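Protein modeling request. Please complete all fields; requests missing the sequence field cannot be processed.
Requester role: graduate student
Desired output: 3D structure, token encoding
Chains: 1
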Amino acid sequence: DNEPALSDNKTIWIRNGKDLQEIDEWKNGNTIKLMADLNLPNYTILAESNPVSFKFDGNNHTITYNNASDSSDKKGLIGRAKDIEIKDLTVHSSIKFTANSEQIVSCLVAQVQKGKIENCKCIIDGLDFSAIGNIYGLTFGGIVGEVTNYIKENYSGDVIINNCEISSTVPLDFSTTQNN
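Delivered output (180 residues):
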């Protein structure tokens, strides 16, 4: 009985992967608070074309995911966002690049416009370049893939990344790719 409700209209508590995948309140600028470690196979949050604003409190938990079957051109735990705040989160990711060479990829947020990311850690557990062949047009980042000043409307803003780290358990090997 001491557990918080799923939502109090300002904070949405996430206890499992299903809770996270079923959130429909992203666009309201709510705070998402992680209550447990999650494993999200084949999933990117918010890969849609319109970026949204929200706060994500990792609450010192870990999300493990891979995007092997994600066909989006914005790949990361979070595809596109604006005016975000993300804190206290560890992410383990395995990333597979697809034949679409116009991709923006990162461990945490693929593309962001304005926001603050702090006390986060990204650990890349796997990189698969075998399907792309050509890396022309590929943007690859650690915490953030691309900071943009234009998403949908003409608006600019800073992205502040503070006290974050990135590491990899696999070597980066581009020997199977070509840049034409």
